[in-house]
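Internal tracking record. Fields below are filled automatically when a chain is submitted to the structure queue. Please do not edit lines marked as system-generated. If the sequence contains nonstandard residues, flag them in the REMARKS field before resubmitting.
Queue: standard
Priority: normal
Entity type: single polypeptide chain
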Amino acid sequence: MGQFDVENWREQSKSKEIIPADLEKIITPGSRIFFGSGCSEPIFLTDELAKDTYRFNDCQILHFFSLSEREFFDELKPTSFRHNTLSIVGSTKLRKAINLGHSDFTPISSSEIPRLLRGKRQRIYIDVALLQVTPPDNNGYCSLGINVDINKTMVDMARIVIVQINPQMPRTMGNSFIQFEEIDYYCYQDMLLLEYDPYRLGSGIESTEQSSSLDTISKYIAQLIENGSTLNIGIGKICYKLPQYLAQKKDLAIYSEVLQESLMPLIQNDVITCKQNYFPHIMTSLAIGSQRFYQFLANHPFIEFHPTEYLVNIPRIARNHKMCSIYSAMKVDLLGQATNDLKSTVFEGTGGESDFMTGSNLSDRGKCIVALPSTTKSGKSRILPLLNYEPVSLRAIDVHYIITEYGIAYLRGKSIRERILQMIGIAHPKFRQELLDQAKKMNKVYQDQQIPTTKDGVVVIYPNNFWNYTPSENLTIHFRAVQPTDEREVQDLYYNLSPEDRVSRFFTFMRKFDHKLTQSRVVCDYQNSYVIVGIVGNIEEKNIIAIGEYYLREHTSLVEIAITVDKEYRKFGIGRHITMKLIEIAQEKGFTGICGDVLMTNQVMIRILKSLPYNTIFRGDGASMEFQTRFSDSNLQK
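SYSTEM-GENERATED OUTPUT FOLLOWS
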């Protein structure tokens, strides 16, 4: 390539310069036309295609996903175009046209598109590519700017490359450049790029309740993101909100098909540093946002744009440190399968989800997260017994976590029964009993399986009651209210008790702790019965090492308490901590005191009871004593 004359390139390439009206002369009948997707769509050119479409006989329009509302179809009669999209993200008009049969949709993963465009497996042929690029630089290179994805491949494979050269397009780093010589025709038009606003697409402004749910979901996701994690974040309101809850994280990295504007503050404030990652820079394929964000991306050496065939590559994804892929879904089922579509409506498509989920599974300490509100705007459950009609976008075996505003369901390595209980626990309370009944009909859970309800059978909401207890520098215990999904871990704690400890706790030597007995400990109404558990380890490796319980004694306002602590964690003051916490909860619930029985040999518990800031009355002089403490009977000397 000879020296490029950056000052006079337009004068020297007049033969290439066209106006949009010239497309009618260049594009022949029957042509297959591709145009740039997302916010990089060359509007100056596609406006011409959408105008008087009869001029382009039997041409096929193909693109990845569209954020514009230009119509290459007609709701009343066929047009000269046949429109085919590889993704339905973005355009509500396009989604409607597809579901009415006025436009085509090809379900395909992002990584498969380049393979169908080139080589022995080529199935997609492109005659004309319409793209948007920057003006050429001193070396004669134009940047594809905010959209490299499959645009780079299109430059190689299209018979004719036509571009809109736009000074507003930011020059981005990475493998985003094409030679000016590769361009067959261009038009020069200075105009603002398309912008992306997740609150504009389809659903408008949410209610306060909906917004609060999205915030809660984002906070739950943030709990799972460790320092040093690499993030792949999908498109949607939840994914857009998430970054504001990651501000306290350290040394995050980005390896993501899409780069959203809400990540910009994390880049500016050095939360995203990529210091611990295999790739030392932010790696992406396309960006969506506002003009301000596009200018931020211009010539930014820390942000690299790469083609889809490079970025959406499972072995390359797996190299990332703690690779966390986060996606939204329309619906999920009790097994953990997710769909982006509705029962009779194709809604979004798949993009790179399946590849990124597989890569995240293979990554060291990777996570695969699906997040969604528990209900639709019309109040229907987004958690179904099974996905019967909707196509599965993400397989149950690929999903580690599913999150709603009601909590986190950890599914990795869980049995079907365990998965179902996890999923019921994050469903909207008004649908939990129905989901449990359906699971019983399918014989997927115990027929006597229960979920927390009041004495009248009303499903109760899990209390947002959790805290940490740090008795030593090397030990932090996370406490929370018990859940039905804790059954196996509670059994493990009981079975680890010595014969003497079993007698101290149950007043007899218990040989077995079966489902019926243990379920009575993990299913409570969080009012008249309340159980808290102490956990060491994270959600993936949790180990319950302590349990505190109270149960309302019949015909009284006193609650009977019981405490169990694993032998390896005694002498840390855990028993006293649990006792004081049970007292605090009982007072909040309106009870007047605690009571119970204690063996004379259980001197640790007796000392705890005697040290309380209340007078404790003991009765009995045999092998065991009954105790009673009223909160109104304060012992000021204690």
